[in-house]
Design goal:
Layout (H helix, E strand, L loop, with lengths): L4 H37 L2 H20 L5 H33 L2 H60 L1
Helix pairs in contact: 1-2, 1-3, 2-3
């Protein structure tokens, strides 16, 4: 046990912080359990709304230094992945039941899949064009810089010869 008054105070503050941190970590655990329970029950819309609350609580704990940023990122990532898988599984079951009843919906889904592929290729071409423009402008600026430097040095030599 500490004998100095300031050391005794420091022990008290450490204990208080420890209790607060323990409470926040326990709250994170219960929020995650509730979130996963909502997903297991199939209440995906409620889980999606609740996810914002869980994510913000984890982020606030991270910003206070209670949990490490990588730990917070890992927790949020796993929860988001769980929510995404639940969404996909429910949409797949609805698509399978509806596709067996009508064949026209299958044709519409094929069209939707093809559209993003064409957009991605045009975006790549646009990005390469803008990249080549940036390279050409940067080369021009370097030539100007090299031309100006020798003229400045020459003028400084003339100034030193005149003063002598």
């Amino acid at each position: 046990m500490a004998n100095i008054k300031s050391a005794k105070k420091k022990i008290n503050t450490i204990e208080r912080r420890h209790q607060e941190n323990k409470y926040i970590k326990a709250t994170i655990a219960t929020l995650i359990k509730k979130f996963r329970k909502l997903i297991e029950e199939g209440k995906i819309e409620e889980a999606e709304k609740y996810s914002k609350e869980v994510y913000s609580y984890i982020d606030s704990a991270c910003s206070k230094g209670i949990i490490h940023k990588n730990n917070a990122s890992r927790k949020i990532g796993r929860l988001a992945q769980c929510l995404y898988k639940a969404k996909v599984s429910t949409t797949n079951t609805t698509i399978e039941t509806s596709s067996s009843t009508s064949e026209t919906k299958e044709e519409n889904t094929d069209i939707i899949v093809e559209e993003p592929k064409t957009k991605k290729t045009s975006a790549k071409k646009a990005s390469t064009d803008s990249a080549s423009e940036k390279k050409s402008t940067s080369k021009k600026s370097t030539k100007k810089d090299t031309e100006e430097k020798p003229t400045k040095k020459a003028s400084s030599k003339k100034a030193t010869t005149k003063s002598e």
